[in-house]
Amino acid sequence: MRQVQLSDVGYVYDDGYNKTTALEGVELTIEQGECLAIVGHTGSGKSTLVQHLNALLQPSSGIVEAFDFTITADAKKNRKLGLSNLRQKVGLVFQYPEYQLFAETVLEDIMYGPLNFGASQQEAENIAHEMMKLVGLPNDIAQRYPLALSGGQMRRVAVAGILAMNPDILVLDEPTVGLDPKGQIEMMEFFLSLQQKLQKTLVIVTHNMDVVANYTNRMVVMKEKQKVFDGKPSEFFENREQVESCYMELPHTVKLAQALRTKGISIPKEIITFEEFVNYIKELEGNQ
Ligand SMILES: Nc1ncnc2c1ncn2[C@@H]1O[C@H](COP(=O)(O)OP(=O)(O)OP(=O)(O)O)[C@@H](O)[C@H]1O
Ligand SMILES: [Mg+2]
């Protein structure tokens, strides 16, 4: 089922003095249950793009269709749409969680969404405790001031606050920044379990190509305001010129496979996850 469709979307930041074009002619569809990575060099338009998925930003040109909403550049029409419903369906965890957290305590912050969507105080509190547990936050920080937490903890609070609204699509802008390596893996495994067990759609903005290779099966590449690739990560990574022209790195597994190829060991190009890679090497060993 198609959940979101962007047609020829353009966006211009305009503060009254300066205009900055951030998106041009972007076409994108998102189907239920996908796990999609959005990548691209800094300033290429990723954060601007994902803020269109829940209408936090509304297109300067083109059309965003998300669930039952059709959002265009006509601000007057958009105001009549009741977009808070869309914000419940498409949960966006910001690139900088400190911009998302606003309450006096962690618990209140996470309770905000459920309270807004009709839960009682007690229900919201129960949901908040449940979400804290789910994202790996200890209960004793429930009464702490969110902005006094570590970067990794703040990110977890922001994720918990969004999950508390039970969105259909979870959009995560750089979700593993600020986490230690173990925390990064835990967080990604956790997101993946949401996709696999609850059929949530995942949209992950990341600079980390290992995250792309290991956890996602579709990759959208942004370059200078435009979408320049949309397909299987392995197909993108096998085209070295394309990777370089987008100022991107390769995942560690792909780098290793390339190094092994120069030594005469052939590794198929489709192999990009760590697990696939290890299994393939074991098979090679077994055959020797
Ligand atoms: N609030 C804003 N006002 C004006 N220009 C902005 C604003 N936010 C972003 N831009 C500009 O829009 C363009 C796209 O920015 P965006 O933040 O979407 O990029 P990004 O791909 O998310 O980058 P990063 O990887 O650094 O997070 C850039 O040229 C940026 O300078
Ligand atoms: Mg960004």
What are the SSEs and their pairings?
Blueprint: E1 2-14, E2 19-31, E3 35-40, H1 46-50, E4 61-66, E5 69-71, H2 75-79, H3 84-89, E6 90-93, H4 106-116, H5 121-134, H6 151-163, E7 169-173, H7 181-198, E8 201-205, H8 209-215, E9 218-223, E10 226-231, H9 233-237, H10 240-245, H11 252-262, H12 274-287
Parallel strand pairs: 3-8, 3-9, 6-7, 7-8
Antiparallel strand pairs: 1-2, 1-4, 4-5, 9-10
Helix pairs in contact: 4-5, 4-6, 5-6
The protein binds adenosine-5'-triphosphate and magnesium ion.
Commentary on this structure:
There is one protein chain. With 288 residues, the chain is α/β, with parallel strands linked by helices. The chain has a single domain, classed as Rossmann fold (3-Layer(aba) Sandwich). It contains 12 helices and 10 strands. The protein has helices at residues 46-50, 75-79, 84-89, 106-116, 121-134, 151-163, 181-198, 209-215, 233-237, 240-245, 252-262, 274-287, and strands at 2-14, 19-31, 35-40, 61-66, 69-71, 90-93, 169-173, 201-205, 218-223, 226-231. The strands form 2 sheets. It has a 6-stranded mixed sheet. α5 crosses α6 (151-163). The longest helix is centred in the middle third of the chain and has 18 residues, at 181-198. The structure holds adenosine-5'-triphosphate and magnesium ion.
